[in-house]
Write a structure and sequence with these properties.
This protein is an alpha/beta fold. The chain has a domain of 95 residues: Rossmann fold (3-Layer(aba) Sandwich), CATH 3.40.50.300. β11 and β12 form a beta hairpin. α3 crosses α4, α3 packs parallel to α5 and α4 crosses α5. It is globular and about 55 Å long.
Amino acid sequence: MRLTMRPAGRNQVVSTFPRRSVVLSFMTNRDQPVFSLKGVTKSFGGHIAINDISLSIGDGETVVLIGPSGCGKSTLLRSFNGLILPDCGVVRFDGEIVSAETSESMRRRMGYVIQDGGLFPHLTAYENVALMARHCGRGANEIRDRVGALSELTRLEVGTLDRYPVEMSGGQRQRVSLMRALMLDPEVLLLDEPLGSLDPLIRADLQSDLKRIFDSLKKTLVLVTHDMSEAVFFADRIVLMREGRIVQADEPINLLRRPAEPFVTKFVQAQRQAVDVMRGLEA
């Protein structure tokens, strides 16, 4: 079936594409992990942010990085796309070393979402979403069609594409930021506390929508959060960090059933809602 559009506002697009027919992702067959880290260490001014990290992430896996403030989870996430390069150790993406020479081209294969969206304030929502596609030379019709399909996928309200970030709610900004991250159909999504600045009701609604989107796209996802219930909700595997090191990388239920050390139990029990969710998995 064809994707049809009707104009509404200076850049707004309304999609009449049937929801079931939208195809926004593809799966790849890899014999190797999407990400592979070995002995990765990074320091800032004498402070060790991440220390001797080794980790592999498989194709289509959703991995959540969690831990106390300052444990190194955001630094670790930024090492995946080369925004931070390690002092020692190796980060590989699809088998290739992430370096100063390779990271720029690799980032075009990764979507990146940060807290509160990180949208450019002088651009409308449409212009923010289309920015990288225009930079890469995509045609206007292709961009318009892609933005329309992503608007439908993220359930962005009609009229929002024509607004500037200051005119949007926090939830709308995060939906637009996700659209921007998905614009080039990346193989990987990296999300750094994407819901951290939202109030609880908006956060709960957006969590459900993000879960639906992630499940439909089947992309490799790495997400940073400080909220264990959120980690359990999204993750195939949780990586719990402390003082720059990985304490336990495991399925969510195993942090409750088979904690690697007492800190794991202490961290989980500090967030009682997560315990209730985990016990629901046992039922």
